Write a sequence for this structure.
């Protein structure tokens, strides 16, 4: 059981996959029996949030340093552009409700959104660290709920009933 929790914890830390991939893995039969839902969520949230301070304070500096390096430059430039694009889009959409927009951006489980991209965007926009972490964590919790409901087939049941 510990190995299963460790796996979903580590998957939650992977960029672009994050909690959005770890919750369905934990709830599916992929690892054997599904993991208990509350400990699974807590494990995935902690795993997804653990890199956030490092991303906020150091990722932009590392990406800028590596952008012109021979082997890693293209990937680092891609990450920089993704962060800048996400930050600009977030700021244009949000106006004064920037932290609410950050919460929604992280919370809606779409490709390219999530704690990593949201935190990088917050860093590029020089947003307040504490408020950004709260918005990102709330978004991660929302994404976990949405992915859990989707994994359990709740949305399919609603579609069958009301569709």
């Amino acid at each position: 059981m510990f190995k299963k929790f460790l796996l979903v914890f580590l998957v939650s830390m992977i960029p672009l996959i994050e909690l959005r991939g770890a919750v369905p893995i934990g709830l599916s039969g992929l690892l054997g029996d599904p993991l208990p839902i509350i400990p699974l969520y807590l494990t995935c949230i902690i795993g997804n949030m653990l890199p956030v301070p490092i991303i906020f304070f150091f990722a932009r500096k590392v990406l800028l340093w590596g952008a012109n390096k021979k082997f890693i430059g293209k990937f680092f430039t891609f990450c920089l552009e993704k962060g800048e694009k996400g930050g600009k889009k977030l700021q244009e959409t949000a106006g004064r409700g920037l932290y609410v927009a950050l919460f929604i951006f992280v919370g809606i489980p779409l490709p390219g959104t999530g704690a990593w991209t949201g935190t990088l965007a917050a860093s590029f926009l020089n947003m307040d660290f504490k408020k950004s972490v709260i918005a990102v964590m709330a978004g991660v919790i929302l994404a976990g709920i949405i992915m859990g409901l989707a994994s359990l087939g709740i949305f399919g049941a609603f579609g069958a009933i009301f569709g």
About this structure: The two ends are 39 Å apart (CA to CA). The mean pLDDT is 87.
